[in-house]
Amino acid sequence: MPETVVDLRSDTVTRPTRAMREAMMTAEVGDDVLGDDPTVQILEARIAELTGKAGALFVPSGTMGNQIAIMCHAAPGDEVVLERDAHIFLHEQGGIAANAGCLARVIASETGAIPIDEVLASIRSENIHHARVRLVCVENTHNGHGGTILPLDYLRDLSKSVHDRGVAMHLDGARLWHAWIATGTSIAEWAAHVDSVQMCFSKGLGAPIGSILAGEADLIAAARRHRKRLGGGMRQVGILAAACLHALDHHVDRLADDHRRARELAAGLEGLPGVSVNEPQTNIVMLDVGEGLTAESLLAALAERGVRMFQFGPTRIRATTHLDVDDSGIARAVEVFRDVAGRMAGAGAP
Ligand SMILES: *Cc1c(COP(=O)(O)O)cnc(C)c1O
Fold first, then answer.
1. Is the pTM of this model over 0.90?
2. CA end-to-end span of the chain, whole Å?
3. Residue-averaged pLDDT of the chain
4. Nearest C-alpha to atom 3 of ligand 1 is from which residue?
5. Is the CB of 62 under 6 A from ligand 1?
6. 83 lines ligand 1 (CB under 6 A)
């Protein structure tokens, strides 16, 4: 293995900076299950304000935030509508069924925005035979579609139609920060159209752990109970909340650099035989390989040269820019990728 590794597998691989560790070390703490942690309270109040919601709840992971939201909105036997490649559907181990007892109805889309007419068609009339659709989940930015941004107009129209039918909306905003920085549309403007929103501090903001669920007061009170039941009640967790506050202060504006680097990475990989590159909207570059190349063989060859990316399917690769990859890392990734893919395609790989 080469000494310096350019790790583009995920924006979760970042390590806390020295300044973040210092903020953690000096954080005021208390037992948060008993409501005594002042730093957690500051973080929750700050996110409530940022989202324009009444309250927020600090949770260990984005998965737990999403799962708790579903448990708040829907009861066992209820149906939840989601996009087919949604993280909640694909990457949370069937928690919709296992944790919330709900059915998932998935709808395919091109870019992560499920067609509104299909969402409405899935909300059936009241009938003793039917499961009740209680919740529609959306994801912004959309991980599975390559960090795509939901258009704000779309979210507004979807939300109005869904709410008119008495159904709630949850936003999986693990990377909503990226939508904010890429478009200038504030977190509150996105969140205004949903009843709950989950955001991660460990996705590109550089915190070691931590996500947050925001919503109205009743929802947050219910969420606090569900969090405890799932084993997510944490004690002197201001240590982690301090890392998240530090991330909010120092690591949000710089996401624009990650977006620029993703565009540079995509441009650098353009035009290789057997490789097609999606134009990135935020910090995720999706690559599709063909002509005898497989994601697995290409990733293995890249890793030997110290460039790591993530397999997203048999022929699909995801590369994610983040705090711990600078301009020279991107240049190196481009150089190594072009060399490796060029050779493999030339050799009639794999
Ligand atoms: C990563 C991610 C999550 C889950 O976050 P964890 O902290 O890894 O549990 C949820 N939704 C999306 C879109 C994600 O990318």
1. yes
2. 21
3. 96
4. 62
5. yes
6. no
